[in-house]
Amino acid sequence: MSKVQIISIVGTKGGTGKTTASHMLAHGAALDGLTNAMLVTTDDREILEVDRRRYQIYDCRGEAELIDLVSALTTTDDFAGWTVVLDGGGNRPAVDDLLVQISDAVLLATRDSAEDLRQLIANLAAVVAEEPDAGGPAVRRIYDTPKTLVLPLQWPAAPNARADADRRLDHYLGLLADGFVGPGRPDPHRDLLGPVSVGRDRVLPPVLARRNIPMAFLEESIGALTPESNAACRELWAAVKAALPATA
Ligand SMILES: Nc1ncnc2c1ncn2[C@@H]1O[C@H](COP(=O)(O)OP(=O)(O)O)[C@@H](O)[C@H]1O
Ligand SMILES: [Mg+2]
Fold first, then answer.
1. What is the pTM of this model?
2. Domain segments of the chain: what residues?
3. How many CB atoms lie within 10 A of CB 138?
4. Measuring CA to CA, how many Å separate 28 from each of 21, 82, 124, 205?
5. CATH fold for the domain made of 5-111+127-153+201-243
6. What spacing in Å lies between the alpha carbon of 78 and ligand 1's midpoint?
7. What is the Cα 230 distance to its own chain's centre?
8. I want to staple 148 with a disulfide (CB 3.0 to 4.6 A). Which of 45, 106, 209, 223 is the partner?
9. Contacts of 248 (CB under 8 A, 6+ apart)
């Protein structure tokens, strides 16, 4: 039986659309075939009603529940064959670091505003203290692994605006590759860890355009999803699936 496939959607910026995208991804994975899909919620917001949807919700708003789930995912076959989408709560780097470590793919969400993009590159360059017995440097990057992909959310759909947004994203990824974590802000860890290089191949297509997402996903309680909603979920899942590491 195939192993569990774990995808996390993270990023410290709030309101980018992570929760919306997480639900849509889990639903899209379920629509894609026989896969059992599960959405894991880790922040402390109200949980959406998903009665009519094809995926299940696993409530990990409590730290103990999250630790139990991580242990089940990493040490048992209980979730073999499942696609598990972990919705990061935002602004909790320690939780995000845990999610990143157990994930097959990590989607770092960003919108196209300068503030989002600044936070994106700060996230990509972020470090955590390394375990003392790990033998390496005292810190390591959280997101600087090939499994981390940039997930553009609420991207403009109009061609000119989209081209502007793409250029802005390239500009910020270029700063990062040059060893800066913001305009004029050198990355304090570049000498020790090297600069972070994230190329265009690590940026997912901007499937969820601004205001293009089905309203059903923005509401707390919904009925059956419309064909448009299902199509949007399939499209998001297809984009992520195409970019998943081959081993996942
Ligand atoms: N593609 C989109 N277009 C327009 N608004 C969106 C889109 N995705 C999300 N939103 C809006 O942004 C708000 C925050 O979305 P949410 O998924 O809760 O973000 P996060 O989990 O990153 O904080 C939602 O209430 C919704 O109004
Ligand atoms: Mg959220």
1. 0.91
2. 5-111+127-153+201-243
3. 11
4. 10, 13, 27, 16
5. Rossmann fold (3.40.50)
6. 32
7. 20
8. 106
9. 5, 104, 105, 147
Tokens of 26: 């889990």
Q: Which two three-digit tokens encode residue 66? A: 């999250």
β partners of residue 5: 83
In the numeric block, which tokens belong to residue 123? 């996230």
The label of the residue with tokens 């309101």 reads 15
Low-confidence ranges of the chain (pLDDT < 70): 1, 34, 46-52, 90-91, 134, 213-224, 245-248
The residues lining ligand 1, judged by C-beta closer than 6 Å to any ligand atom, are 14-20, 90, 154, 208, 210-213, 218
- Alpha carbons 221 and 234: distance in angstroms, whole number: 21
CA distance 50 to 93: 28
pLDDT of residue 221: 44
- Summarised one tens digit per residue, pLDDT across range 88-121 is 876 677 888 889 999 999 999 999 999 999 999 9
Residue located via tokens 């064909």: 227
Q: Note whether 95 and 89 are within 8 A (CB).
A: yes
- pLDDT value for 222: 47
Atom of ligand 1 at shortest distance to CA of 22?
17
